[in-house]
Amino acid sequence: MSTIKKVVLAYSGGLDTSVILKWLRETYGCEVVTFTADIGQGEEVAPARAKAEALGVKEIYVEELCEEFARDYVFPMFRANTLYEGEYLLGTSIARPLIAKRLAEIASETSADAIAHGATGKGNDQVRFELGAYALRPDIQVIAPWREWDLTSREKLLTYAETHDIPVEGKRGTRSPYSMDANLLHISYEGGPLEDPWFEPEEAMWRWTVSPEAAPNEPTYLELDYRCGDIVAINGEVLSPAKVLEMLNRLGGENGIGRLDLVENRYVGMKSRGCYETPGGTIMLKAHRAMESLTLDREVAHLKDELMPRYASLIYNGYWWSPERSLLQQLIDASQATVNGTVRLKLYKGNVTVVGRQSKTDSLFAPEIATFEEDAGAYNQQDAEGFIKLNALRLRIDALKKLSL
Amino acid sequence: MSTIKKVVLAYSGGLDTSVILKWLRETYGCEVVTFTADIGQGEEVAPARAKAEALGVKEIYVEELCEEFARDYVFPMFRANTLYEGEYLLGTSIARPLIAKRLAEIASETSADAIAHGATGKGNDQVRFELGAYALRPDIQVIAPWREWDLTSREKLLTYAETHDIPVEGKRGTRSPYSMDANLLHISYEGGPLEDPWFEPEEAMWRWTVSPEAAPNEPTYLELDYRCGDIVAINGEVLSPAKVLEMLNRLGGENGIGRLDLVENRYVGMKSRGCYETPGGTIMLKAHRAMESLTLDREVAHLKDELMPRYASLIYNGYWWSPERSLLQQLIDASQATVNGTVRLKLYKGNVTVVGRQSKTDSLFAPEIATFEEDAGAYNQQDAEGFIKLNALRLRIDALKKLSL
Amino acid sequence: MSTIKKVVLAYSGGLDTSVILKWLRETYGCEVVTFTADIGQGEEVAPARAKAEALGVKEIYVEELCEEFARDYVFPMFRANTLYEGEYLLGTSIARPLIAKRLAEIASETSADAIAHGATGKGNDQVRFELGAYALRPDIQVIAPWREWDLTSREKLLTYAETHDIPVEGKRGTRSPYSMDANLLHISYEGGPLEDPWFEPEEAMWRWTVSPEAAPNEPTYLELDYRCGDIVAINGEVLSPAKVLEMLNRLGGENGIGRLDLVENRYVGMKSRGCYETPGGTIMLKAHRAMESLTLDREVAHLKDELMPRYASLIYNGYWWSPERSLLQQLIDASQATVNGTVRLKLYKGNVTVVGRQSKTDSLFAPEIATFEEDAGAYNQQDAEGFIKLNALRLRIDALKKLSL
Amino acid sequence: MSTIKKVVLAYSGGLDTSVILKWLRETYGCEVVTFTADIGQGEEVAPARAKAEALGVKEIYVEELCEEFARDYVFPMFRANTLYEGEYLLGTSIARPLIAKRLAEIASETSADAIAHGATGKGNDQVRFELGAYALRPDIQVIAPWREWDLTSREKLLTYAETHDIPVEGKRGTRSPYSMDANLLHISYEGGPLEDPWFEPEEAMWRWTVSPEAAPNEPTYLELDYRCGDIVAINGEVLSPAKVLEMLNRLGGENGIGRLDLVENRYVGMKSRGCYETPGGTIMLKAHRAMESLTLDREVAHLKDELMPRYASLIYNGYWWSPERSLLQQLIDASQATVNGTVRLKLYKGNVTVVGRQSKTDSLFAPEIATFEEDAGAYNQQDAEGFIKLNALRLRIDALKKLSL
Q: What is the ipTM of this complex?
């Protein structure tokens, strides 16, 4: 009775999406195309191909997308100094639009009617996948098994796997208590003991960074070169966006940088607790602000700061492929034309400290004007009187009115 | 010829304002009232009284304003998670409105015609003093000697002091190369070698904090109790606002927390470089966000985040005593009614880490809904489908229109 | 099997909600409480009681809520100069929160488990009713028959009515082609020929206003007295909020004022075309801006203007009972303390023209400063030079940087 | 002693700027270059050349800039639906950047050191001229005679003219009581009896429009074709931007459209009262919103609405040539790609009524979804339940928390 003949599944090769693969065929009687992407999550994607083949999939997409991810998603987002709710670097959120795009494109390439994903009905990821897919393929159908099926516990899932010849790695009860997600920008942890917001995560949970305590006793200095708001070289070595992220992840991770423990507000209406490691991103945010501080006009910087929370919410909520995000991006990108130069940083036991910034071409820092020494007339201090008097005028008229009553 | 008969001078007791005191009398033939406030700058104010007396001042105001400063200025500002240009905790800016208010009030009490201050014509402080004074005493006159006189170098100032019997402490050439400002919230450094934004500040510059390197190898844990967005107790001990700041400054300073090195945009139109130590404030910002993350509605939190940059600019630019700041404050304060509970923090070598947050009365964290486990129907995952479908509708209509062309 | 024992129905007495009444009993086997409110829609509510009695309803609420509606909903909204999408005065939107509140309260009073309404699944009203009800009674259940039943056409509805002994007034096919909604603030028209946005509404559609062509050839002048942003008297006669609206509706309607023809964006994701008559509201908006122009500080006015679109969207989307609307309202209300005085208007053939405004207590218009004549030193024109120079400083530094390259 | 050798004067040919011309030579001993532009003010510019020649000016620039003004300033501003303080169409403000640009360019062409203008020290125009000039020629000097000289009354000005052989047209005391400014977009009136905000302007003041009372008894219908947010044809006739404005001014003026009587907040800190006639602009604003209502995505439209007040203030305050205005313009312009189609309007005695809008290429109005009739499944009403439930979730959690206390 279903009209779905072929579905493109975002397939990790793990238990959950393997179960989904079988369940889709069984429930919808449809063919399944698998799509597995390497976006820097740190796990091999080759096994996913083998598993898909073993499960009889005929059309298998396995793709290395690290550069595209870093260049077209992560870097543009960092141009805005993006933080959700003041702290979250959006590591999960920013990876979804790329997956959604490829799902939609592969659906077109394979003449599939639908896409499917393994995100639950409680989280933000379902929204991000589906809004993206609908925006790019408005006629697509979406299957979200977690919202449909009755496999509502891990036990039921394992039982389903066993009865459907899906290989289960490891034994029951041995897996991590955390729900994790990783890509080139970050790794996240949710669930399990973290569901108590008073619980301090145990050291063993963190996977990408050493603790500040375990970090080296000597600081690491580094210099980042910027062109149009993007890092193009580290310590003088020209690097691609993905290589920049990789190197900063390594340096940050070694120095205990980038851990975050947060209660955040999901788009679907609830609060949730998440822990994140974003070593490279943490460095990038700090450095980018420093580069902008030297090269961006004040009002441009302030405009960006005022628009940023909205831009961050758009990404968090899954609206990357919306026209309003696109317009904001154009404004943000245009602002970066002058964000060129070098930032010098010190990394030390969890701290990222800016220790220098310079721009041969675009510095707006005018030492001859700013100086505390004599400035030879570069700035006329008497101008300040008129500036203040006229800025005060409305305040004085307000106050005089009250006095006269 | 001047119509100024009496002027209230913001008097530190130092060389500059002592010179100003003499210069005011000489230039304007007016009487001078001195006002010296202890707002936690860490220097004794008693000597200022002695010096004023020695200089023949008849009306001398020396006031301890630490509690008022913390309670009515610092704490309200932190309710907004205020950061100027993404990083600056506004330590200098927030102290000026209180000084401006007392200058205006003392002018009224002493029937003075004018106020005077020792801020230069290049900085933000002149604006903050004067906008405040004009807003509270619209008929007041303002004398800003640095904008008027010809004592445009330190040498000339010293010569003036010597020829006018003003005692100069220390010899020529021995003072700090930095222009500093301190109060209960922070200490700042500007000028000298910092005028090169590529220059890394030397360790000896910093006065309030040890370096992360020199901080203890053991972390410090602490618990902060909040009521209506304000810290009311530390580790269970009820403390006044000033005592909270004092204690957090001590704990932060010992753990290498709160250093900032920044290029910022002044209201008068130039970029300047400043270094700041705000140990207690750095802890407060992090903890307050954590307390809000548990107790504040999502849209309220986002509204606050979007208004914050404007609120920060108002304070930075000197508009504390404006009606628009007052309105924003009312909104911010009203939002804090539910910000009650406890935050647990770990301080370690420059890092402030939130390791727990709880609120017995106001937590909006609903574990039964957020859980990754079965939720017994607390949340209906099928609701997400309609939620996404309708949020996607406009995107799909947009996309269909393009397809049909 | 349903757990719903009693439901409170928003009951107009018309065909649709009478069918719903029967359908609820039949489908849910539940008792129905009816709630009918007079909010100025211009139809008698007494017949609704008789009809409910005839249909065997035991608990019948019929309430006159015009004053509450005008005072607690319409007037607060107009303090913000609220317009949705630049034009719509939110006449329908603002009535829903009051209905939602009474539904929730009556559910509590009658120990009902659920509420029900006659809004369709395509419009904004369902959202407004339900968000309000959930916010005030988080445990309530909601029944929206139009989303559930199969009576998807007028024919089916009429057949259902006939087979269930529901009296149908008028014959099939004679009703208005428009879907209408009215209350003390406005009447709206949707559907039918309006679904073609190129179609010009016929004159016969409009019910509250004469056309500008048919309006009197002589203008009507009137004076509105404001206290704290609200109109308290017209032409010197003190009037309650509802009486103010009534009188302005009459005066506006007679003078052809307040018609609007709009394509708007619904919260559920589609565009729709609506025509509105809001004669009193159109006058109020124009007059309130005029009163504020004289009595509101510039930056306060601008802050309100920047927040207004968000505030309007909150009301349009149904978030009246949200904490963020409440916070914005507090800011808006606080801003109105000085909005006192009188506005003089001319009404003429569709035009509302402000011809005078004055405030004995709160005018910030300072003629001695603003005058084009000599001002005897009230304003020092030389202050403007410094004001401009410092506002230009960053622009000049930017430009000099480009020149030097 | 002056370092100014040559100055470019914005020269109207009238008494004031003729006096300035002489005064500049006398005061600064400098050569004067005159610049006179036709931007549609409705006065011949040729006489200005003759007068300048008679006054011995050697370098005379007289330029026809109507098309440039309409195309590069007026049209881009209307893409944003720009209103200052909710009502003012910025007719004066938008002309200044073009004058400032030409002054700066002519200064470069003629190797002048300075520019001069005839704006007073109290108004906004001085700011707009000078910020523009400084942004485009950061090294330029500015002479604003009204801020410098002692010709502070009309009498003194006339005496100066007589003693310096400057021809004065008309006798003393016969000129208009209003200070006026005109260009292709509007004419403004300030001063004189308007300085009493309770005074209703007399009919004789208005110059461009007939009163609604005097307008024809028959409506005028017209159709405007839009391409990328700009009007490109009226009633099917392709017209240049200036011709569009001219024609709409004529049609609007004949139909009594576009009068505005306003108290506004100047950038220099005072309130002032102005009356404006903007017949074409009033039509354009209404029509553009209608075109956007059909073709612009909801969130794009809302983003524009939220940014508009800031954009309007930038123009009003003189920041056209700032980087932040430029960035906002890029966002606004990019949003207009889909604003294509036709708007049908009715003009009648002061009213502009939209009576139809269509877009063959870009309409986002989906009648099959919006319809009140059966939609054959185009929209699934059941989706609304989940949409509302998840949007309500945070409100319900908030409310449940309160209940549980």
A: 0.96
